[in-house]
Amino acid sequence: MVSSTNSVHTSARDSGNSGQSPLIVINNVHKSFGTNHVLRGFDLSLYPNENVVILGKSGSGKSVLIKCLVRLVNVDAGEVSVLGKSITDLEQKELDILRTEVGFLFQGSALYDSMTVRENLLFPLRRHPDRMRGQDPEMLVRNALKDVALEHTMDLMPAELSGGMKRRVALARTLILQPKIILYDEPTSGLDPMTANEIIQLMLKIQREHQTASLIITHDMDCARVISNRIIILYQGINYAEGTYDELSQSDDPIVRAFFKEVQKPDS
């Protein structure tokens, strides 16, 4: 059943999350920038080993929502809890520690151009040496690159990589801290269909092997179809509708159907 406009949704329980505590809880969150009311009471829960896709038009607040999750942007009202901790209540040191449990894959990969692939992966380990857990950093780099089938790129510069390879290296850099949650911002944008499918399959592989939960912003409906356990439509600042891909694609609601008739352009 499709749920919409703040009604109760049950597919999280149906997909095997019964009795499990959510890793992320967003409750009645509001965020405005001047007169631009971006989030107007948004709700979301993300459960262990679950992939949740967020769909929304350009400018609807999807990227703002992700920033609110790790307090890069402060909410105006409402509650945000990550791994059982209220984001708004944390001191900076506690917040920094919590952020190491949440990985990011940015739309543009965000690799450091002046660093080799090895140095890009070592960078988060140097910032958070406690995350090495006594392991050899060189081995952690090698294993992370092995996860994305790019061991041979260790000494290359980002400029020597294709767009798909950059995305894989960025994902390896995210994995190296062994996060419990991964936030994906348009993971397949700018990639050809074959490379995009490779990234989608890699995301599924990572979910299986690392037992991660993921929140995924995408305009790629094929990505949404393959990767999602649930889809949430962010419309006019609220969780307008939520369900599986099949449930939402069969909805009679014209706003919901619009997302399945055309692929929106990525956020600028």
Q: What do these coordinates show?
A:
The protein has 268 residues and is of the alpha/beta class. The chain has a domain at 102-108 and 115-178. The protein has helices spanning 11-17, 62-69, 92-99, 117-127, 137-147, 163-175, 193-210, 221-227, 245-249, 254-261; strands at 3-4, 24-33, 36-46, 51-55, 77-82, 85-86, 102-105, 181-185, 213-217, 230-235, 238-243. The strands form two sheets. It has a seven-stranded mixed beta sheet. The chain has a four-stranded antiparallel beta sheet with strand order 3-2-5-6, covered by helices on one side. Strand 10 (230-235) and strand 11 (238-243) form a beta hairpin. The longest helix has 18 residues, at 193-210. The protein is globular and about 50 Å long. Mean pLDDT is 86; it is low at 5-15 and 263-268.
Q: What is the topological layout?
A:
Blueprint: E1 3-4, H1 11-17, E2 24-33, E3 36-46, E4 51-55, H2 62-69, E5 77-82, E6 85-86, H3 92-99, E7 102-105, H4 117-127, H5 137-147, H6 163-175, E8 181-185, H7 193-210, E9 213-217, H8 221-227, E10 230-235, E11 238-243, H9 245-249, H10 254-261
Parallel strand pairs: 4-9, 4-10, 7-8, 8-9
Antiparallel strand pairs: 1-11, 2-3, 2-5, 5-6, 10-11
